[in-house]
Amino acid sequence: MTRNVGIIGLGHVGSTIANYIVTGGFADELVLIDTNEKKVNADATDFHDAMANLPFHTNITVNDYSAIKDADVVISAVGNISLQKDNKEHDRFIELPFTKEAVKSVSEKIKASGFNGILIDITNPCDVITTMYQHFTGLPKNHVMGTGTLLDSSRMRRAVSSELGIDPRSVGGYNLGEHGNSQFTAWSSVRVLGQPITEVAKQRNIDLAKLDEVARAGGYTVFHGKHYTNYGIAAAAVRLANIIMSDARSEVPVSNFHEEYNTYLSYPAIVGRDGVIEQLHLGLTDDEKEKLATSANYIRTRFEDTVKDM
Amino acid sequence: MTRNVGIIGLGHVGSTIANYIVTGGFADELVLIDTNEKKVNADATDFHDAMANLPFHTNITVNDYSAIKDADVVISAVGNISLQKDNKEHDRFIELPFTKEAVKSVSEKIKASGFNGILIDITNPCDVITTMYQHFTGLPKNHVMGTGTLLDSSRMRRAVSSELGIDPRSVGGYNLGEHGNSQFTAWSSVRVLGQPITEVAKQRNIDLAKLDEVARAGGYTVFHGKHYTNYGIAAAAVRLANIIMSDARSEVPVSNFHEEYNTYLSYPAIVGRDGVIEQLHLGLTDDEKEKLATSANYIRTRFEDTVKDM
Amino acid sequence: MTRNVGIIGLGHVGSTIANYIVTGGFADELVLIDTNEKKVNADATDFHDAMANLPFHTNITVNDYSAIKDADVVISAVGNISLQKDNKEHDRFIELPFTKEAVKSVSEKIKASGFNGILIDITNPCDVITTMYQHFTGLPKNHVMGTGTLLDSSRMRRAVSSELGIDPRSVGGYNLGEHGNSQFTAWSSVRVLGQPITEVAKQRNIDLAKLDEVARAGGYTVFHGKHYTNYGIAAAAVRLANIIMSDARSEVPVSNFHEEYNTYLSYPAIVGRDGVIEQLHLGLTDDEKEKLATSANYIRTRFEDTVKDM
Amino acid sequence: MTRNVGIIGLGHVGSTIANYIVTGGFADELVLIDTNEKKVNADATDFHDAMANLPFHTNITVNDYSAIKDADVVISAVGNISLQKDNKEHDRFIELPFTKEAVKSVSEKIKASGFNGILIDITNPCDVITTMYQHFTGLPKNHVMGTGTLLDSSRMRRAVSSELGIDPRSVGGYNLGEHGNSQFTAWSSVRVLGQPITEVAKQRNIDLAKLDEVARAGGYTVFHGKHYTNYGIAAAAVRLANIIMSDARSEVPVSNFHEEYNTYLSYPAIVGRDGVIEQLHLGLTDDEKEKLATSANYIRTRFEDTVKDM
């Protein structure tokens, strides 16, 4: 019983997630897995060195797949950010040759463990990898999801809130599609100050296209300033894990499987202990619908290309 | 008013501290300062990208010393961990040629800001740098302290708790002296299971010298496994900052100025909003007293050598 | 510096608020004021008895108005719930003869203290009392607000979320007007599942009028089941205090002064360290506009009747 | 999976515990049980009315014993504080005629549910009722414990910390024996400022007997000032529940079964997910040993008298 979370991949993102869970007291059992034994043991010891000064206690297990059998949530943060080093465009597909093999292998170990909780994927390219996780683990489609545009939406909300001088939590709305270059802000879904942002933008002469750029530019500022991003994505992933464990049934834009497009893609859904419980139906504009279809098509094609020779 | 914290140095340690403060909601105003503009802006943006998914809100100011004028606490995490790269012994003095110049410059800017809160130093070599901070800022001695052996004590408590299968928070006692190679566990101060650990060790055949090694080895595991340590020290520093801001008057082993030895060194003290409020008087053994004097002497000599030509 | 909160009135509501602040570590200084010395001392000692087992420390001052001089936020929870005992309708005006005198006296003491932070009123009838607080303290209108329909909106969100099986935090929208019998749900502002609730209600055959009843019935269940309500209102008040202290600039429906109606009434606003920073402009239906005007008129009339002979 | 807590008895104590769990996000499933259906439903609705304004989500089930089958922890806060009304001495045995029948009935329902987690008793007289719970539920002795002198120890720590101007968390040591009039502070176990309190008391002319009175007087201040106590005991109980759920293996003075005295009594133990894991052996003085034996004898006798005709 009690809360059991597994994290696979203890790079910048995975270890930041683990630290947030440890300092926040969100899990009772934390299973940390990484092929770099030295790194995962370093992090585990560092967490243990923190515990005398923390309000909560967390039990940590290292590199033991059998310990995720009873996990409520497993988070995949497998990655190889060094592959992104000279990637000016920050195209997340640059990591795919590495991550696709890693994910296949991880999936087999997850499956072998008997894990039957909810799998959250952060590993990039997020939507393709999420699809692969579902494909290789055989877990129900609604039990596998990616953080997807939960991060992109937060960036959009940061840009909007900064423009208007308000709390990002008081900005509603979503970025949709691929957690990658084909994603877009569904401005028709964004509401601020009690109104559609399109209205507010007219009144205040705000250029939404520029806000889109500001949101993206923020991502680049982070990536080019430190060669990885971790705090924003960790906050998103831990919030999602907590939603699942507490069966909160919250509305979040995550990468979830859409029959209509026959692929995973980010679109808001109600998420709880049974994973994706209900998918929303936004009143998108025609232009947004087209962008979404394009993004979906791109993900599906990339997935098919990727798995056909595996 | 409300809580205002400054962090100087946004490397692995400083940014982990900032993240714990942001996710925990411990400060209302957070001032982040680093000479690497790209890095500090990357972290600030990453924190902003997290905020839509966090329960608390924190306002962040970047690279503006004037904003620390009203800070309750300023934490120095200035460092250059790359200097430690080929340092097998992990001698923290290897960073001194870099940090002494940085700290002098930072002190002048802190002084110019009009800051009159509490200064917590993490920058290594911790005791020498803490002394320098007091020297160069002119702040009252009890308003400047170093995290010192708060981390070493946590490591000792981790090692003891692991041996006995108990919560590290249920291990009392202290490591004393330099936050460096001359520090030592004052076993006479360590109590577990309602008894002095020396008694428990006899009953259970526990070799305390070995536990000392385990505590140190843990530090090496972290350092050599990831080339820096951050989570343990961040938990210690944030706990200390919270103690100060809430005027908790808690007992903690920090680097504080001791008239007797005419130097900063780590020894438990009562800490609150007025900094170091009261120094403890432990009943150390003769051997421990000697070790402490040696450690104190080492720190004082290194400080004098360092500042004489500055 | 650091966070300073005053609470005036330590009945069911005030003491529950104090406890949430103490257990959550949201304030460093907490000033508790009540005319019942025995009760306020009992609560203060009870909080002190809790502190050895809590992660945070809070300093508590009892019955000293001078200690609120530097408070960031003062919360009025003055009340006399026993007056509500045989009040089948739960008309909050039944408390007015008692509270109006209490509030005048409290206002004079607040004024004399030199307090210049933000005043949050919970005392009922909320909107009239909030108006009186502003009137008698002379604080700027945007520095005085009432919790108002923040609680009613939470009840509406609870009713809607329960009907749809989703997180109440995933229900957007507001109850407006008087925190009393003339308040109403502005259904045009309520959005769920990415759509206006009016659309969702049509699709799923949900009777919004019935949901309104469920929301109200919940309030009665609480009031008649224990003769007071405290947990819902305390969560609302503490959230509001935290928003102010962290200058979060969040969108919340609170009782704030509206020039248009020349009265305090609940309507969403952006709230931060400077109190009410910006008022929203909702696209209400004609029917809702009329209800709001009626509610505003009722509050203004009651206020004028109340103060004319004071 | 995830955290599941049951609370039986939603009076002042039980509902304050529930509220701390809900606001702190410590449980995912909370089962509330009380014979007063109106009161327990009022509290449940009040918690639901809070949730839109809280950072965490908690699912609440009311009056369904089958829902505690999978509970990690069940807390008994059954009581009838009105029986204490004219009880000048605050003798907790005054509640026994009521609580013994209630506890027998509750035990049968707990047993029937199939519950096999850890049972924490707060119901008074605590040690006798804890013994009864173990007796009637048939749960393993180490899986049943009472909060016992965890509260008395906190009161002692409050009195000591107030005398010395330090954090109560920086006062170590225990009150032992019955959670009632025969309990006593084991001053030999109390340490402050790095020394035994007996030493500090000599140096500073502190009368420990007077501190004992101050600790007790605090309890009376609370009880006579509001006719119940809730915040101190709730903090103790929730800390204990968290220790159990996170398997923290912390040292806490709880009412646990001692073979030597053939009874439950409060004495520090290591507590984790398997309940009482290890009992401490304090180096008590002869006087303290005698007091403990007297207290143990009193509890055992009262238990035997109580159950012989049930």
How would you describe what is shown here?
Chains A, B, C, D: GO terms for molecular function: L-lactate dehydrogenase (NAD+) activity. Chains A, B, C, D: NAD(+) binds at residues 9-14, 34, 122-124. Chains A, B, C, D: InterPro entries: L-lactate/malate_DH, L-lactate_DH_AS, Lactate/malate_DH_C, Lactate/malate_DH_N, Lactate_DH/Glyco_Ohase_4_C, NAD(P)-bd_dom_sf. The structure is a homotetramer of 310-residue chains. With 310 residues, the first copy, chain A, is of the alpha/beta class. Chain A has 9 helices and 12 strands. In chain A, the strands form 3 sheets. A 6-stranded parallel beta sheet of chain A has the order 3-2-1-4-5-6. The first copy, chain A, has a 3-stranded antiparallel beta sheet with strand order 7-8-9. The longest helix of chain A has 22 residues, at 286-307. The model of chain A has no long low-confidence stretch (mean pLDDT 95). The interface between A and B is large, with 54 and 54 residues.
The greatest interface between two protein chains, and residues involved on each side, is: A-B, 54 and 54 residues
CATH class category of the largest domain in chain A: Alpha Beta
CATH A-level architecture of the largest domain in chain A: Alpha-Beta Complex
Radius of gyration from the alpha-carbon trace of chain A, in angstroms:
19 Å
Biggest beta sheet attributes of chain A: 6 strands, parallel
Strand content of chain A: 15-25%
Keywords (chains A, B, C, D): NAD, Oxidoreductase
Protein name (chains A, B, C, D): L-2-hydroxyisocaproate dehydrogenase
Organism (chains A, B, C, D): Lentilactobacillus parafarraginis F0439
Domain Lactate/malate dehydrogenase C-terminal (chains A, B, C, D): 149-305
